[in-house]
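Incident log entry.

Two folding requests arrived from the same account within the same minute. Monitoring flagged them as a possible duplicate submission, but the sequences differ. Recording both here for audit purposes.

Request one:
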Amino acid sequence: MRKTIVTGLAVLSIILTMIVPIHASQSIYTVATTAHIEVNNKTITPRAYNIQGHNYFMLRDIAHYVKDSQKAFDVGWNHETATIIIETGKPYLGGSVSGSSIDAGGVTDVRVSKAKVLKNGVPLSMTGYVINGNTYYKLRDMGSAFGFNVFWDGAKNKVVIDTEGNAETVIKNQELSYEVLRLINIEREKAGLRKLVMDAKLEKAAYFKSNDMLINDYFEHVSPVHGGMVDIVAMHGVPYRHLAENIASGYTTAKKVVDGWMASPGHRRNILNPNLNKIGIGVVARNEHGYLWTQLFTD
């Protein structure tokens, strides 16, 4: 099969894994899953359940994993009042966490929790589910209640819990990527071409390329460590017949980098190539030097 490979370069100076469906009591459909989550750059796999499309975790598991951070919180239980007691700013020193194994006996009981939750003495409104005797809460609700960020990192293909403020940088980079996509699709529509679609594998590969340029301090189509775009897309399992790449450095906004690419015949040709239908865009901040930008295109 013939493959087409095209590159372009621009510089500012014009240079959830195992899933087991379970039908539980009270018609609450529950899915046990081994969740892969990153907490401050460390991957964890706590026991989790998916209910109505949302992932639920035990409070004490999350408390354990953030206990050494500025968002630490302690979890206690008042049996007499059936109340979960949360104290923020205090590390959790309780028992062992659940681990990633799924209950061997399956789910025998699922029901909405009636327990009250107090954070520093103030009631919290969080819906929980009691599953086999343990109470689980939605991860995003925990983040909102205890002040840590929960977001999906497409480049890493995992849920991220951020207690140190790094989420804002990741989210900003993703926003720039999708603004680039919006702007180049406007150009393609002007040319009578179909819109490009963001592809998850290509997005990871493009982010990898931009991050590789940052880490290894280079700005070329061929990495001194990982090779060219053919090697990088192969690392990420991307099939293709046509493959193209645009890179750029120093531009500070999506509009500026797209304008720069469109003003360059080679980059413009890649963006307006009718044989290309998918794209991955990776953006990485380069401190005061703007951003490193990568576009990877396939058919």
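Request two (distinct sequence, not a duplicate):
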Amino acid sequence: HRTGTGDALAATARNHTAEVSSSQTDHGKVNVFSGNSTGIHPMRNMTQTKGGDLFGRSLEACDVNNDGHDELIVGNTGSYEDSLSFSSVEYFYGSETGYDGTPDHTLTSLVQGRLFGLSIACVGDLNGDGFDEHIITEPLNATGGFGTGTLWLFEGTDQSLPGEPDWQHSPTTPNTRIGEAVSSAGDVNEDGYDDVYISSRMGSSSGRLELHLGSASGLTSDGQLIAEGNAGERLGFRVAADGDVDGDGLSDLVYSLRSTDQGEAYGLSYVMLSERDWEYISFPFPGEVSDVQLGTAGRGETSLVFTHNDGASTHVTKLEHMNDGTPGGQWVDQTLTAHA
């Protein structure tokens, strides 16, 4: 990530402990290293100022105030195996001289066991205002029901960061545990707003991965299903996106799942999808569809012909894909109408 002194790297020392008092022992430390032409050099160590089971459980960096320097965002919480602690998230503002060891902004969870800050992700400009947003997950929050989880979205701003989210979302299905992983998707549907991949652990640890679209009003709550795992596969534990792996001009998506056919050790597999594999587009037309024919035009492009009746008239519509040089091309439609 970027600081005034050049690129920087932050890493968590998970085994670090410090006895603050007879009743308090801090766990975890974040080491920040600066990079320049001569290599990587230690810059600063950071330790927690708020409650939590592991300072540095999650790390993220992005320019939330659009000043040209990345802020370092540090999550301090427990794990699924040990989730009873309080949680907090601490922000360290970037500057020309790097990071101060004192947090500039903090968020705390006043309820134990919710895993606030288990994942933190900078997700791009979702609403087109020129500032990058970030999402903090709380997978054991029970606002929507037992174990549903909650997503907290904070919009970028050149003002002081807020103490409350600009948007939040809790599913209604028990044990969804939304927010296993969050990853920026870039602008998948090319509407000018960045989009987000969000995975959920689910009750049987099957895993579920969805795409949530950005818009002028922010992130949409309804996700588009990308993949769903079987019991124990934990699909989407790790997700990476917004890159063109195969150079075809379309963004690619990589997600992990546990391969249950490799015995009790659950070998790890990764699945890569191109945007071609899962992208869909909807075409609204009036009336009820009565017949659909799928074909290929003479130049090799896909065409679709269907009949639909809106009660007053019968229509025959032809949709044909046109390669116009853009990654997704465009669809052109022609409609013949027979009036009743």
